[in-house]
Each structure stands twice: as C-alpha cells, then as structure tokens.
TrEMBL record:
InterPro entries: LysR_HTH_N, LysR_subst-bd, WH-like_DNA-bd_sf, WH_DNA-bd_sf. Residues 6-63 form the HTH lysR-type domain. It comes from Paraburkholderia strydomiana. This is LysR family transcriptional regulator. Belongs to the LysR transcriptional regulatory family.
Amino acid sequence: MLPAIPDLRQLRYFVTVAEEKHFGRAAARLSMTQPPLSQAIRALEETLGVQLFARTKRSVELTPVGADLLPEVQRLLAGAEGLRPLAQSLARGEAGALSLAFVSTADYGLLPLLLRDFGARYPRVRLELTEATSDVQVDELVAGRIDAGLVIAPVPSRHAAQLSWLPIAREPLVIAMSTDTAARVAASGGGGGGGGGDPHAEWLDTPVSLRELADAPLVIFPRRLAPGFYDIIMDCYGVAGLQPRVGQEAIQMQTIVSLVSAGMGVALVPQSLRNLRRTGVVYRPLSESVPAIETGLVWRTAKVSPVLAGFIEIVRAHAASADAQAARVP
C-alpha cells in the first residue's frame, strides 16, 4: 500500500528534478543513480494522484500542476529545514511564548523594566500580557492558563505547595488625594507647617498624617481581590487610631486614582503609582510608619519552561539590584 502522504526525501527529489529539468543531472546532484530517482518520482506522482512531469526522450518539463506545486513544496521543505534550529531555540528559551499576568500597580514601575530587559535578551519570544488582580492570577496559574504572574504578596497559603514565589520589589504606601484636599491640608499647615509647597504639584515630599485626612472617605478595592494588601491599608489606619470610612470601591488602581481626582476620597497606593499622572491628583508620603508593599513573581513550581526560566533569571537580577539599592539607603 502506498503511503498516504509523500515523505520529505521524495519532495527533495521532486524539487531537484524540477530545477535541473533532467533526471541524469538531478541524480548526479543528489549523489544517486538515475533509475531509483525516476522510481521515486513516479511513486510520488502515484501518491499524489497527479502527473508532475511531462517526459520525452530529450526533455523533462513540469506539468501545469507540477509548476503550481513547486513553490508550495519549496516552502514546505524550507519549513522542515528550520525545525532543527527552531527546536534548539525553544530548548534554550530563545523562542516560543510566555503568558504573563500582572497587577495594575506593576504597570507603573516594575513591569516596563522587566519587559524591556526580557525583550532585549529574547526578541523572538512572543509575550502574551494580561492585567489581572492577584486573586485572579493565582486561580489562572493553578488552572494552567498562564505561565507566571506579577502579584502583590502574600500568595495564598493553600497554594504554597504548588506555586513558587520570588519577591522583587518593596515600596512604601503613599496617599493620593485631590488637589482640593491637598490645598485644604496645606492651608491648615498640614505636613510640617506653611503648606509644604505647592498643593497642586503632582508629588510633595513633605509627609502628611492620616489624622489630617481622617474625615476623607477611603477609596479602596474589595478585600476579596487582595486580602493581604487590603489588610495592610486598614492596619495603617488602625496604627493611627483611626477607623476609615470606605466611600467607594474599585477593582483597578487606575479607576481608584480617577475617583480620587473626582474628589470621591483619598487612597493609599504603592509609591510607584506616582508615575500614573492624573490631573487633579497629588501624591504625598505618610508621616506614620507604614509597612512596605511587596510585589513578586509567582509561577507553578512543576511547570517551568525554558522561556519562563529565562524570564525568572531576569526577574532575579532585578530583585538583586533592588536589594542592593535598598541596602545603600541609610
């Protein structure tokens, strides 16, 4: 019984005969004798159910079908020849795809740096990026729908056996307020007297106390999305002896900042969110001692592809650089 599809050897024979237009020259080029070459071409024609060459005693010409088929076969052979280097690139993590999710806060500090370095080192890797909250990312990871995620600590303990965690950056919380609120605090001498600079500036170094903003509603995300982060924010109020009044809830940090700009309240956000410049919003450090927010990479321990291993290596380098920089700060 004839094979259902031709093999690559037959296809190479077909291309060589088509290029030489002579069985003898094609056989010499292929380092074989003419009879087995002719037999292989006939077997190919029988497999395909078409005549590829019009033969006479003096010439060999492609039939119209053969002429139309030739460029398709050439492309197929080129693709087959590329399989070995492609497989080696995939094994080295230099090609393939990486599905990465990230929390919105990472988009304003950590994520662009990681993507820049990863893209420079692995330009052939296709990145599939998705913005998602920490809880959604963990669920997607466990289900195998993404390769890794940039999340805010902590990772749920129930998944500790399945997931690996690499802390990357720690940053303090700052308070985001509307320019009207900033002007009010400045007029009352908040943050060290005299107003502490232009209240409409996007960032003021002069700290402000949560007590000065105790009457402002808190704009925050629902606790179910990131309970650890939510509790840290609430603890900041508790340490200051305050009970926050939640005014609005929103899922994304961009939305939270937009609500702040509209005068709907204040928000405690990671310091990197200062890079989200929004008209009508001022960011200021807190005078209270606040815990750092930790962002890191999480992935399935048992599923580390070569591409993911390369990304983890870059993340480790960034984490080491952040640790070294933090150690230099007095």
